[in-house]
Amino acid sequence: MDRGPIRKIIHVDMDAFFASVEQRDDPRLRGRPVAVGQAAARGVVAAASYEARTFGVKSALTSVTAMRRCPDLVFVPPRFDVYRSVSQQIHAIFAEFTDLIQPLSLDEAYLDVTANRRGLPTAWLTAKAIRARILEETGLTASAGISYNKFLAKLASDHRKPNGQFAVTPDMGEAWVETLSVSRFHGVGPVTAAKMERLGITTGAHLRSKSIDFLTEHFGSSAGWYHAIARGEDDRPVNPNRVRKSSGSETTFDRDLTDPKEIEAGVLRMADDVWTWCQRRHTFGRTVTVKVKFQDFRQITRSRSLPGAVDTLTLLRSASLALVRSIYPVEKGIRLVGVTVSNFLAGNPEPSQLPLPASQPGPGGSAEL
Questions:
Q1: What are the names of the required cofactors (predicted)?
Q2: 296 is an annotated ligand-binding site residue
Q3: Which fold would CATH assign to domain 246-344?
Q4: Is 108 a catalytic residue?
């Protein structure tokens, strides 16, 4: 990892972060299968401990299914304020080793340690030092992937979990990628992985064998990315100034709703959550999106972009209500609603001159199924 100008990238990923914090803070939970979330009939697992994962319990699983798979599962309500506080501790440790930190979430980040601020002989030893500092400071374990680019570092961090690390060196990168399932690749989601499988592409080796013309024909603008990662190539820098593009909040109801008053009450709660984030950071956007998931799991969104910033709670509430009202009458029960603000404006944005009256439905945006 030390030859010439080759970059040294570390991807640090906390181990079962939310659940591990709960087990750390409550000794009674240690060694037990734990799910962070609500045990309600309509609840969803936000995170699962490794003990729970052995039963097939994982994030985004419904609580009912999780309890069916693991009858001894212990549910604990999420404490996001605590998770954010611990995350700040972890990122302060990262800053001891490099200024080039690109957070991906509360529990993972890319670090470029090419400059070697601490004077450690290798990136491998740097990753070990970071993980040791995290354990010392927080009592939590982390896993790390070390490589010469972000794509490989992220893949590597999952290779020795939990509480381990793995390095992909320049002389092994291409061959290592060929052995992996494409379903593990960043940027290849379940739908794309299924499409690739139909085309006979299940491994990195299969993907590498396909020409750029073939990939373009079947995957359009993503062809270049797939062509590159099949060869272990990724030129993206670690970007400490990555701009957040949206802020959203969503909730799953305890039962399917058809009453407009109940649906709108949920939308307003989500709008209030989003407004709290926007106001705290003095960050305002001009696009409001409402997400609706029906009882059959069909999902649609409605969006509207205003001429200026959505810079008051009243305006955000009005826009959100108008958008959800555009789907009425509701033919099927609604199980989830969400509100997102995006298209953030830089500097001191001008307020919108076209507030949406809450008493009238908006025009509705494009629907995404």
A1: Mg(2+)
A2: no
A3: Dna Ligase; domain 1 (3.30.1490)
A4: yes
Residue holding tokens 């896993």?
143
CA angle 321, 327, 331 (to 5 degrees): 130
Superfamily, domain 1-171: Reverse transcriptase/Diguanylate cyclase domain (3.30.70.270)
Residue 212: count other Cβ atoms within 10 Å of its Cβ. 12
Q: Is 72 annotated as a binding residue?
A: no
**Domain ranges for the chain:** 1-171, 174-229, 246-344
Point out the catalytic residue in the list 22, 51, 108, 264.
108
Superfamily holding 174-229? 5' to 3' exonuclease, C-terminal subdomain (1.10.150.20)
Report how far residue 113's alpha carbon sits from residue 92's, in angstroms, rounded to the nearest whole number: 15
Prediction pTM value: 0.74
The model's pLDDT over 286-331, given as tens digits with 9 standing for 90+, comes to 999 999 999 998 999 999 999 989 999 999 999 999 999 999 999 8
Contact indicator for 345, 245 with CB cutoff of 8 Å: no
